[in-house]
Amino acid sequence: MKYKPLFTNKESKALDSLTIKELGFQEQTLMGMAALSVFHANEDLWKTAESIWILSGSGGNGGDGYALAHTLFQEGYNVRCFSTSPNKNEAGKFYESLVSKTLGTIGTMEDFYKEWEEAEEDSVLLVDALLGTGFQDSLSKELKELIDTVNDSDVFFYRLSLDTASGWNPYLLGEKTQESQSFVFADSIEELGTRKWENIGFIYEKDSIIPRYYESIGFPVHSHLNNATFSNRYYLEPDPESAISIIKRKNKDHKYSAGSALFYGGSDGMEGAILLSEQAFARLGGGISKIFSPSMNIASLVFKEDLSKMVKTSSLAETLNDPFLKKTKTLVLGPGLTQYPNDLSGWEVPEGLRLVLDAGAIPTKGIPLPKGNEILLTPHVGELNRMTGIPHHSVQAAYDTLIKYCPQNNVYVLLKSFVSLLVCPNGFSYVWESPNPKLATMGTGDLLSGILARYLSLDLSIEEAVPLALSLLDHSKQVEEPYPSAHQILKSLVELV
Q1: Strands 420-423 and 412-415, how do they pair?
Q2: Confidence (pTM)
Q3: Which residues form the YjeF N-terminal domain (predicted)?
Q4: Do the beta carbons of residue 357 and residue 378 sit within 8 Å?
């Protein structure tokens, strides 16, 4: 599995300073390297534009814009540069002066509006170099007007932002601020030097994560990872090949070595949820499993489909004393439960047993969690809010809550959303940014619980199992049906393995 370090704005600034002060890089050199990286990464894009306009602010981000303008001009592109105000950054001043000499002029905001009014529809590629990742203040009236113009105009057929979309701040997202917050609606973002934590979840169209591309410019992102410059946040990239190969049964496997798991859930009328979880586990190669449920109908429902299954109507207390629990490595608890089981509060999880808590087993704030070293909770956003008593409108806000919650309760939490977040009790966290609208259907959470159980039953750690399960489930994007059911998704995954 590929893990890419994610840096906060503060950490990125610290790395920038370290690169200049301790490693001896000149900021002017880094700015030039950033411009060259962006230029070469987008050579096909530049060719599509009749004209390229660069909006440069007064800081380092504006300096990157000037450096890019110089490079584009020297390579023969029709480029115009507009400035909100003179650059205050020393390296930025150098490139601002260079652009004045090479392009002949840098336009003011008055020039920008005048030329914008005369420009033809879809004729301009706009580069946003207004505000860097360090900008945290509210926008001035002038900047808000400029950004709103950029967003609403049909003159600009593409908007590329350097490092971050100007004005974007995930911490301002909320029910009242989401619509009123002004930021550039970038078509893509070029992250320079470090991958940015605050950019995670950048979205302005429903169900659409805007593409971000990372350009290395020499920052020591691996040789200087320490507590001062890095907080152990990682970006997960899908690994579909490993997800499939690991889950396949080996020739020498027997029913226990192939993986064993116990499932408890399915209140009256909700039995399908726990059955789907167990079915995912079994059909993806699990060797042996047993289903427990408070429902009196569970046995007839199971045996109607498969007489070889083990199933029992039981309370959770009886389930936790069943001999099968001592033989298995994985317990999935909660799919289809309509009420949190009191016997779970404070339960001492046996050593070596991995516990997955989903749906009805996600506790409300104030209810004691079970105690153990390998407990994974899998809430969606609403369940996370109920579990912590705090509303969350961004993955960054969820992280701020969970980075305290997980060590305090010695649990792992996988937040399921269009951006998924795994936070571990040791302080490590992993982001999965792969929106999949085909999973927005009833039963896919139950499916994920069963897939997680399959990987965990193979003696994998929670940190290893979660990205593999997400990678496997990501294959559902290939299902031909536009709105597949959970059973159709499972069928497609079974065909892969």
Answers
A1: antiparallel
A2: 0.92
A3: 12-216
A4: yes
